[in-house]
Amino acid sequence: MATDCLFCRIVAGDLPCSEVASSENTLAFRDINPAMPTHVLVVPKVHVPDASHLRAEHAEMLAELFETARQVAGQEDLADRGYRLVFNVGADSGNTIGHLHLHVLGGRTMGWPPG
Ligand code: 5GP
Ligand code: ZN
Questions:
Q1: Could you identify the atom of ligand 1 that is nearest to the CA of residue 6?
Q2: Of the bound ligands, which one is closest to the alpha carbon of residue 47?
Q3: Is 101 assigned a catalytic role?
Q4: 94 CB under 6 A from ligand 1?
Q5: CA spacing 20 to 30 A to 9: which of 22, 46, 91, 101?
Q6: Structure confidence at residue 61 (pLDDT)
Q7: What would you measure as the largest C-alpha separation in the chain, in angstroms?
Q8: Among 85, 90, 77, which Cα is nearest to 105's?
Q9: Is 90 helix (H, G, I), strand (E, B) or coil?
Q10: Ligand 1 atom at minimal distance to the Cα of residue 17
Q11: What is the distance in A from the centroid of ligand 2 to the CA of 48?
Q12: Distance between CA atoms of 19 and 31, rounded to whole angstroms?
C-alpha cells in the first residue's frame, strides 16, 4: 500500500467511502463528484498507478476488476440499458488520481466521442 495514495487509504479503511461492491482483490465505491446519475469507481486493492502500468502478472486482478464492474452494473440496473467503462491515463484524459480505477458510468444517454 502507498500511504500517500488516496485510494490505497480508502482500500485500507483509513478514509471513508460509499461502498457498492467488493471482491477479494477489488473494491467498488461511489465517485465523490459524480459525472453521471450512476458513477462508480472500481479499484484494485493493490496499488497500480494507471492502465499503462498493467502487465501480464495483473491478468487475474484485471479479470476480477471487470467482474466487479459487471456486478455493479447489475446492482445499479444498468445491465439492460447500457453503460460506459473508462480508464483515464495521463494529463490529456483528465486523470487526477494515481491509483488505477475503472469508471462505471450510466443512467442517461451518452454522446460519442466524449468531449
Ligand atoms: P480520474 O479523473 O483520475 O480518472 O478520476 C478520479 C475520480 O475520483 C474523479 O471522478 C473524482 O471525482 C473521484 N474522487 C476524487 N477524490 C475522491 C474521494 O476522496 N472519494 C471518492 N469516492 N472519489 C474521489
Ligand atoms: Zn494506491
A1: 19
A2: 2
A3: yes
A4: yes
A5: 91
A6: 98
A7: 39
A8: 85
A9: coil
A10: 22
A11: 6
A12: 10
Three-state DSSP state, 103: strand
For ligand 1, is residue 22 a contact (CB within 6 Å)?
A: no
Give the model's pLDDT for residue 81: 98
Q: Which residues of the chain have pLDDT under 50?
A: none
pLDDT of res. 115: 82
Domains of the chain: 6-106 (3.30.428.10)
CA atoms of 76 and 74, how far apart (whole Å): 5
Amino acid at residue number 87: F
Residue holding cell 451518452? 110
The C-alpha atoms of residue 49 and residue 39 are separated, in whole angstroms, by 20
Sign of CA dihedral 7, 97, 57, 102: positive
Ligand nearest to the CA of 46: 2
- The grid coordinates listed for 73 are 452494473
What is the total residue count of the chain?
115
pTM: 0.98
